[in-house]
Write a sequence for this structure.
């Protein structure tokens, strides 16, 4: 079994990854925190509240990357890119779940994938990856006349908006309808906006409390509407997907792989 390392162990997802790695008895050999963090030396299992694992947290640096074969990163864009640079030098595979990347940052991920195998996905759950297919069918059937809106809700701590998943849903629908998302996306509305332009795809963002992640694609026509909704009720779902992706990456050639490929959904629809 390949050894797995987690960047950003102290994050919400970092702790979920430790929890699931323990549940699944995976070979977790490294869990990092910011260089200089006072958490260095604390047991990773105790940090995640799952009991002692005998795995002390370590600072992220050029030597700690050698403590695992395959890494998982749910940190923030700048931190992830620094980790990615270490992974390229050390020739380590990496699963990235970080969202809110700029186009330039995403291009850096694409560039790194020329050297190492990478899975990047804005959502690692089975349900959302299935939803990305279902919305394409809905778009093809209803999209010429229905108004399409994507509504997402997340916890108060989330830093990026719209969510990476909402953007992926928008991209999936736009592709099915042969529309350019950059031209048709409308991010929120305020004031005298005028009547809705039919070709647009709207995005609405809700932030509050401890909502883990809800996404709805709404196809609203005159006389009927279709809503396709996914609700995550545990971060462990994302962690399970990420660790599945990590195992899937073992012995893969350099390249940028999707969660659709990991889950065997790439050829659906
Ligand atoms: N693809 C998917 O399925 C999912 C993706 N996500 C995405 O994952 C990301 C993380 O989410 P979440 O766990 O809620 O976020 P948190 O804020 O809880 O965790 C972020 C982690 O990144 C670390 N970090 C942040 N900045 C730096 C830095 N400059 N250098 C080193 N470490 C840093 C933090 O360290 P410290 O603790 O020291 O602050 C923390 O451990 C987000 O982009 C989110 O959208 C989330 C869930 C599912
Ligand atoms: O920040 C989060 O929490 C989540 N982020 C991802 C996103 O931006 O789509 C996935 C999930 O919804 C949780």
């Amino acid at each position: 079994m390949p050894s797995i390392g987690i960047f950003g162990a102290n994050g919400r997802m970092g702790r979920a990854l430790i929890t699931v790695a323990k549940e699944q008895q995976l070979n977790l050999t490294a869990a990092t925190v910011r260089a200089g963090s006072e958490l260095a030396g604390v047991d990773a299992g105790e940090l995640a509240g799952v009991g002692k694992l005998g795995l002390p947290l370590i600072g992220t640096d050029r030597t700690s990357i050698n403590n695992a074969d395959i890494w998982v990163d749910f940190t923030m864009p700048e931190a992830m890119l620094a980790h990615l640079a270490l992974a390229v030098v050390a020739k380590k595979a990496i699963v990235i779940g970080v969202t809110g990347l700029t186009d330039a940052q995403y291009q850096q991920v694409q560039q790194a994938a020329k050297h190492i195998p990478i899975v990047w996905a804005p959502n690692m759950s089975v349900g959302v990856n299935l939803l990305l297919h279902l919305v394409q069918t809905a778009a093809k059937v209803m999209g010429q006349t229905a108004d399409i809106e994507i509504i997402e809700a997340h916890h108060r701590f989330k830093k990026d908006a719209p969510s990476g998943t909402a953007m992926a849903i928008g991209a999936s629908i736009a592709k099915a309808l042969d529309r350019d998302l950059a031209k048709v996306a409308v991010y929120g509305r305020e004031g005298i906006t005028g009547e809705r332009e039919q070709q647009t795809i709207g995005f609405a963002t809700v932030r509050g409390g401890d909502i883990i992640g809800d996404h709805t694609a709404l196809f609203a026509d005159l006389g009927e509407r279709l809503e396709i909704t996914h609700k995550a009720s545990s971060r462990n779902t994302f962690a399970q997907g990420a660790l599945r992706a990590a195992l899937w990456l073992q012995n893969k050639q350099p390249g940028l792989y999707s969660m659709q490929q990991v889950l065997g959904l790439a050829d659906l629809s």
Summary: Residues 8, 10-14, 33-34, 37, 74-76, 78-79, 97-100, 121-124, 164, 238 surround NDP (ligand 1) (CB under 6 Å). The CA atoms of residues 119 and 258 lie 6 Å apart. The chain has nine helices and twelve strands.
